[in-house]
Amino acid sequence: xxxxxxxxxGGGAGTRLYPLxxxxxxxxxxxxxxxxxxxxxxxxxxxxxxxxxYVLTQFNSASLNRHIAQTYNFSGFSDGFTEVLAAQxxxxxxxxxxxxxxxxRQYLWxxxxxNVDEYVILSGDHLYRMDYREFVYRHRETNADITxxxxxxxxxRASDFGxxxxxxxxxxxxxxxxxxxxALAAMQVDTGILGLTPEQAKQSPYIASxxxxxxxxxxxxxxxxxxxxxxxxxxxxxxxxxxxxxxxQAHLFNDYWEDIxxxxxxxxxxxxxxxxxxxxxxxxxxxxxxxxxxxxxxxSKMLDCQITESIIGEGCILKNCRxxxxxxxxxxxxxxxCVIEESLLMGADFYQSVSERQSKLxxxxxxxxxxxxxxxxxxxxxxxxxxxxxxxxxxxxxxxxAERESEGFYIRSGIVVILKNALIKDGTVI
Length: 430
Fold this sequence. Notes:
alpha/beta
């Protein structure tokens, strides 16, 4: 894998994940109580022995830069690195990234310098565990110019994805973006060609792109330089390459994969981690761990609490409260009498001392964390939020979408999202 370079696409403004992306790039959004989204593809690269990694981003990249600099430091005796490449204006191109392909195109001058054979292009907002070595080996065995990683799909979900057809050798011959009706039926393929059993192939007769690609170095450079008007890999570059006769192959990934680019998908994927006995995706995998920043926090302290089906990050302090089917991030502080149900609390970036907290309470201010007697249900509470005493965050009117930024929260798909650094005063009902 020394001849492979990874390019992780950090995405645009992250509008589907707003307001979690209000103050941070999409790959820097916290995940599972202690990780960030970027840790998933970077860890997959490290576990696959791919150590040359670029992350392309253009919005709010300060916290992403800091996280990567503090987390991924390779030995000085190797040529490994993980670096953020942010959009920049140049005399040749004064524009922002116009799409996935354009983002890579604007940094071709840098990518061309590396003595590699393949570029692996990855997405920064998917949750999955994958050995990219198998992906690259498949690419080399079939002498492919481009290889796409695909997931098998049943008919019920197929129309939500970009689908493709393959021939008997696994070569991609047709594409269709979110087809329905007769167009959907026309995209059925024999997924047994890619390794599914006859039973599995019958249940999942479609294949959908994961947005993960392997390109031969010279092929990617040629395509990007010759098709300057094409700005997206999945919708333009790859269908164009297939039509031009390039060998475009499909590689089957038949395991857990979730696109967590929306608030609802992000919320569901986090809470799914608490399931027993075995969640669909598990961080408890010794052979392929997910890495993140080492914070050296103390163990969490729980004082007379009732906790069921939940994940509690390090350095939390919980007092006489009830936590049910929830994820609590690092440094979460929950006061007595609180009820947290089906919620994701991202925790805090720093501690407030006991004396500082008491001083704020005495002066009528709201300290960091969740105040006494508060109930939170089906919500996402971003970092450093200060939620007062006897607050009810329960979406009492069952609102599906609302923008109340001045009051410190949004509602997306019925999920209340409390903004980072927000202040919710005592007695508030949402």
